[in-house]
Amino acid sequence: MISMLALDASSVKAQTLDNADVNAQWFKTTIPVENGGQAPDVVKLLRAFHEAMPTWVTGEVLEQADHPAKGTRLSGTASIWDGKEDDDFRILVDRKNGYVDLESETDIDQMSACVWRKDNGHRIFAISLYEQHVMPQNLLCWYDYDPKTQKMTPAKGPLEEFVPSIKDADIGWSLPMTGTDFTLTEYYVGFPGITHVYKWDRKQFNFDHIEMPDFEYRPAVDSKAIQHISEGNAWTHYCMLDLTGKGNPLLAFCNFYDGEIGDMMLIGEFKGDLVSLGTMTQDGEKLNVFRGPKHRNGEDQVIVVHRDMAGGLWYNVVLGNLVQYQVCDLPNFSEADAGRTVKVTAGFGGETTDIIGDLGEWIDLSKLWQWRTLEFREE
After folding, report:
1. Beta-strand pair 89-94/73-75
2. What confidence category does residue 347 fall into, taking pLDDT thresholds of 50, 70 and 90?
3. Helix (H) or strand (E) holding 2
4. 124, 305, 320, 326 from 355: Cα distances, Å
5. Which DSSP state fits 293?
6. Structure confidence at residue 335 (pLDDT)
7. What is the pLDDT of residue 182?
8. d(CA 318, CA 252)
């Protein structure tokens, strides 16, 4: 009896499943819901899931839902427990809005679960599980609850049909704490997340729009000025360009006039800042991309060449989405010297100006881009 009482959190956790276990089972597991009835709430559906595939996080949430701990506070329709003094997580239970979660600011396991009501009496139950040290780290399980059979059956959600801009993109999702929108977000190193919003019509989810937070960038690699991406050209479309196949793409924006691309801009990263690598405009600015010399680590590079309104040429040598250095080739307007001035304007050590002679194959961007409409949101 004493040994049973002495079970600590680690030993309890050892008796539960991790994300790898759940990932191998959930999509082929039909789950009975005891006394499910016509309208089971999120806690009842979570309990059925936990009984079929117990995890540490779902057990913690159910314990709090059944026996609210001392110190539990109310916030609207939700009960929230901030944990004990030595805990680093909090648990939220909101039966009315059909949502529960366990969140932490550290690497502890986390979860959230949500329920949507369908016009035909069914329920959609989704549960998101996060585990720091197990693959997959993020796992989303999607079920359809049938009140006639009182069972949850694995179902397809928006994630199964989602196609990111780049094949190997990191994908995140968010279950709604309030409201009914479901979102999927693409993440690329250096750039803000690109969020795809799905609206619920009580039958199914329908894609609605793509949004990105407004962000700051520098208008040129060597510029100290700061601009906001939502200002100026009123960009309406975006695409990701993985020019070296390494999964760390450049970000492109454009707008369309009469069905044709009007203005376009490429964004990369330089020394921790997002920077414009150049623009293509109806006023005459040009933008071209070429294969470049190998980086010293053996990886492929590209050279983004921007011709400005004055005829200056700006060569940005890029590894993935990281600018290695920039060379300018500027017209000299002095009557005494009608030549051009070539110099390195920004970059890391060891660069030279002979990059102008190293332009390789021209890359036809029109065969690569897949433009998607975009809205900006204020943070």
Report:
1. unpaired
2. low
3. helix 2-5
4. 57, 11, 17, 9
5. P
6. 47
7. 98
8. 14
First to last CA, the chain: 54
How buried is 120 (Cβ within 10 angstroms: 0-12 exposed, 13-18 middle, 19+ buried)? exposed
Give CA–CA dist 99/146, Å, rounded: 19
pLDDT at 343: 54
Other Cβ atoms within 10 Å of 254 Cβ, number: 20
Contact 217, 227 (CB under 8 A): yes
Q: What is the mean pLDDT of residues 152-164?
A: 95
Tokens of 206: 């329908």
Burial (0-12, 13-18, 19+ Cβ within 10 Å), 324: buried
Domain ranges of the chain: 2-155, 216-375
Cα 255 from chain centroid (whole Å): 23
Name which of 276, 189, 270, 269 is nearest 233 in CA terms.
Answer: 276
Is the dihedral angle over the CA atoms 133, 100, 102, 55 positive or is it negative? Answer: negative
Q: Which of 188-197, 210-219, 231-240 has the lowest mean pLDDT?
A: 231-240
